[in-house]
UniProtKB/TrEMBL annotation:
Annotated source species: Clostridium aminobutyricum
Pfam families reported for this sequence: Virul_fac_BrkB (PF03631)
Keywords attached to this entry: Cell membrane, Membrane, Transmembrane, Transmembrane helix
Transmembrane segments: 21-48, 78-98, 135-159, 179-197, 209-227, 239-266
Domain of life: Bacteria
Topology of the protein relative to the lipid bilayer: Multi-pass membrane protein
Protein name in UniProt: YihY/virulence factor BrkB family protein
Length: 279
């Protein structure tokens, strides 16, 4: 990327974000994130149950990247215990509720990529598409958790095969310890990329959404790690908000994550708009 193109991208981004439509969008997305998290857990618990994976698997990741009131609030939500024969109607209702965050992101994505000309193809069409997107997102999340849970077992099988065929051996536990974090980051990037690919009403090439996906992935990771330090060593929400401290902490975290996602969408837009600068 040339310096001239980078400056042009920043200027175009600032110009577009002056539009009043963006005022409060991060707060709106954060609100729907919070409203969607329990329905997401309800459906996710059913999917993970098929592969004999407990929701406790998520505890390690949450405790590793989130601290303080945020972790306590989310872990309390994860204490939900699913029933074995959940009514299909309840699952549909949960998916409808969980898709509200996706719907909100769809509208801001379409508004950004069309230069403010459109927010989608109508409420009901986009709402149904948001449900389908949420279903596929949950399947990708389940796949990612399967890889992370059974990754060491898979490497163990590969190690035995390599030892039997070409005599190559390695320490599975050490190799997985080194490989686990890069695999996590790749899965995280692919999940963000998938959403950026399906959110627009007009389909884009995968190549065109890579810049924004990289930006958003790094930004969300930086926000999470930075907020962990902030809540762990600097902020004390208990003083101001009392018993509501955990809810406020989660909302603030979701708010900053929403900004990272929004800026990633904008990054794709200004990247496409400045393509001629390098030609």
């Amino acid at each position: 990327m040339t310096k001239k193109r980078l400056i042009k991208m920043v200027m175009l981004g600032i110009k577009q974000f002056k539009n009043p439509y963006y005022q409060g969008f991060a707060a709106q997305v954060a609100f729907y994130f919070l409203m969607s998290i329990v329905p997401i857990i309800i459906v996710l618990s059913q999917l993970l149950g098929v592969f004999s994976i407990s929701l406790d698997t998520l505890d390690d990741f949450i405790k590793q990247y989130v601290s303080g009131d945020v972790a306590d609030a989310i872990l309390e939500m994860l204490s939900y215990q699913s029933t074995s024969g959940m009514n299909i109607v309840l699952i549909v209702i949960a998916l409808w509720a969980a898709s509200r965050a996706e719907f909100c992101l769809m509208r801001i994505t379409n508004f950004t990529l069309t230069g403010g000309k459109s927010t989608g193809n109508g409420y009901f069409k986009e709402r149904i598409r948001a449900v389908k997107t949420m279903v596929l997102t949950l399947f990708t999340l389940t796949f990612a958790l399967i890889i992370l849970v059974y990754g060491e077992l898979i490497l163990g099988v590969m190690a035995k095969t390599l030892a039997a065929t070409i005599g190559v051996t390695y320490q599975v536990d050490v190799f997985w310890l080194v490989l686990r974090y890069p695999v996590t980051m790749i899965l995280y990037f692919l999940m963000v990329s998938y959403n950026y690919y399906v959110l627009p009403s007009t389909k884009l090439s995968f190549r065109s959404i890579v810049p924004g996906s990289l930006f958003a992935s790094v930004g969300m990771l930086a926000v999470t790690l930075g907020y962990k330090v902030y809540t762990g060593y600097i902020a004390n929400y208990d003083i101001l908000y009392g018993s509501m401290a955990s809810v406020v902490a989660v909302m603030m975290w979701f708010y900053f994550l929403a900004w990272a996602l929004g800026l990633g969408i904008l990054c794709n837009k200004v990247w496409a708009d400045t393509k001629s600068v390098t030609q």
